[in-house]
Write a structure and sequence with these properties.
about 140 residues; alpha/beta; CBS-domain; 4-stranded mixed sheet; 3-stranded mixed sheet; about 35% helix
Length: about 140
């Protein structure tokens, strides 16, 4: 898990988020309303959903986020998290503790830090085509 994920409020612009991604060397930012995650936006979302259509970089990030953020509790096992990432087709999974976001797990984290085949479990589900476009 990467602790303390980078977050923005819903009024942040695409340019602000892209700048954060550049400065922090990250590919995803959580959109938060208070302590509640309301969306996640990735570098790919910015390119595919906004730039490719010529949309203005001053546009609010919420127009391009993936909503309905699925989270898991911090004491969830790596294997269970990987299974759920596969089922939900998620490449990134915010981690909560007492209802507050404390980190984020990516498939890359599973590949680098997990023992066994947790990354393969998650990737198998994510690689299955679906209508769900979570990042």
């Amino acid at each position: 898990m990467t602790p303390n994920p980078v977050t923005v409020d819903p009024q942040a612009t695409l340019k602000e988020v892209a700048t954060l991604m550049l400065e922090q060397d990250i590919g995803a930012v959580l959109v938060m309303e208070g302590d509640r995650p309301t969306g996640i936006i990735t570098d790919r979302d910015i390119v595919i959903r906004a730039v490719a259509y010529g949309h203005d970089s001053g546009t609010a990030v919420t127009d391009y986020t993936t909503g309905d953020v699925f989270t898991m509790d911090a004491d969830t096992s790596v294997e269970d998290a990987a299974d759920e990432m596969g089922r939900q087709q998620l490449r990134r999974l915010p981690v909560t503790e007492n209802g507050r976001v404390v980190g984020i797990v990516s498939i890359g984290d599973l590949a680098v830090r997990a023992s066994g085949n947790a990354d393969e479990q998650a990737l198998q589900g994510v690689s299955v085509p679906s209508d769900n476009h979570n990042s």
